């Protein structure tokens, strides 16, 4: 008799979805997840039933009471078990059908960190000008500091779960995506990007769509850049 336990999720990708009041986004995206991709919704203190909708949609739900984009992403990473993890915003600004293009090259071993480079369908509504500008600056900084030729620092991305844990990311706010790329570059990872659709989000933005969110993001990213000799 074969005593080895078969884990049905062992070969899948865990898709970590940080969510703060994203009921509409979660409802739209869960049915669109491609085969082999399991959703982990990290509810970051929502009051709109995000957790119930996620559970009803078949996602694994993790509750992270500490606010912050990085805190939510880290909670999802800690709860994940699949060999590959992907991150995606839960606000319907990314289409899950693009996931395999991001996760595939990581699963096949060609790339260590794959980023989705955002390609906005409608620039004015999907991607405010100040966010595009800040992003251009970051891409330029990444080229100057780490020699990376990325065009975007998007939140949709994929990597090996265990390797990502080894990077020991410390940021728990908006600096998480930048810290990940800088530490991965330091560790000699092969980092690439692939275009993904960037759609107009469902619901209200908490970061780049608001002045407060943008200032927090700039402060968090600035701190991470400042901690390293430029
Ligand atoms: N800003 C923010 N977003 C969070 C938090 N926790 C989870 N999120 C989720 O992180 C994702 C990105 O936030 P969003 O408001 O879309 O930022 P934007 O795309 O820059 O406007 C969304 O899915 C949020 O629901 C948090 O504490 N703060
Ligand atoms: Mg968003």
What order do the helices and strands come in, and which of them pair?
Layout: E1 13-19, H1 23-29, E2 37-43, H2 50-56, E3 60-63, H3 69-79, E4 84-87, H4 99-107, E5 113-120, H5 123-126, H6 129-146, E6 157-160, H7 161-166, H8 176-186, E7 191-198, H9 211-227
Parallel strand pairs: 1-2, 1-4, 2-3, 5-7
Antiparallel strand pairs: 4-6, 5-6
Helix pairs in contact: 1-2
Residues 18-20, 22, 44, 67-69, 72, 89-91, 93, 201, 205-209, 213 line the site of guanosine-5'-diphosphate.
- How many runs of DSSP E, i.e. beta strands? 7
Structurally, the number of domains stands at: 1
CATH architecture level-2 label: Alpha-Beta Complex
Task: Give the CATH level 1 class.
Answer: Alpha Beta
Which secondary-structure class do the elements indicate? alpha/beta
CATH topology: Spore Coat Polysaccharide Biosynthesis Protein SpsA, Chain A
Report Rg.
17 Å
> What global shape is seen?
globular
Overall average residue pLDDT: 92
Provide the CATH superfamily: Spore Coat Polysaccharide Biosynthesis Protein SpsA, Chain A
Notable features of this structure?
transferase, seven-stranded mixed β-sheet, 230 residues, 39% helix, Spore Coat Polysaccharide Biosynthesis Protein SpsA, Chain A, binds guanosine-5'-diphosphate, globular, single chain, 18% strand, binds magnesium ion
Overview of this protein structure:
This protein is of the alpha/beta class. It has nine helices and seven strands; from the N terminus they run E-H-E-H-E-H-E-H-E-H-H-E-H-H-E-H. The protein has a seven-stranded mixed sheet, sandwiched between helices.
């Amino acid at each position: 008799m074969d005593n080895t336990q078969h884990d049905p999720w062992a070969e899948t990708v865990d898709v970590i979805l940080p969510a703060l009041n994203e009921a509409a986004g979660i409802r739209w995206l869960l049915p669109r997840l491609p085969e082999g991709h399991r959703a982990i919704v990290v509810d970051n203190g929502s009051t709109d039933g995000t957790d119930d909708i996620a559970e009803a949609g078949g996602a694994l739900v993790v509750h992270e009471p500490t606010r912050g984009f990085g805190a939510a992403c880290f909670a999802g990473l800690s709860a994940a078990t699949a060999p590959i993890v992907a991150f995606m915003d839960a606000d319907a600004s990314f289409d899950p059908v693009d996931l395999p293009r991001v996760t595939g090259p990581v699963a096949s071993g060609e790339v260590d960190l794959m980023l989705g480079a955002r390609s906005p369908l409608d620039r004015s509504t999907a991607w405010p000008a100040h966010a595009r500008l800040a992003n251009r600056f970051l891409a330029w900084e990444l080229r100057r500091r780490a020699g990376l030729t990325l065009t975007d620092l998007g939140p949709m991305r994929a990597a090996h779960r265990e390797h990502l844990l080894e990077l020991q990311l410390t940021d728990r706010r908006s600096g998480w995506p930048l810290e990940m790329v800088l530490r991965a570059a330091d560790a000699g990872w092969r980092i690439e990007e692939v275009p993904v659709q960037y759609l107009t989000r469902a619901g209200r933005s908490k970061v780049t769509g608001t002045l407060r969110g943008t200032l927090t993001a700039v402060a968090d990213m600035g701190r991470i850049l400042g901690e390293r000799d430029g």
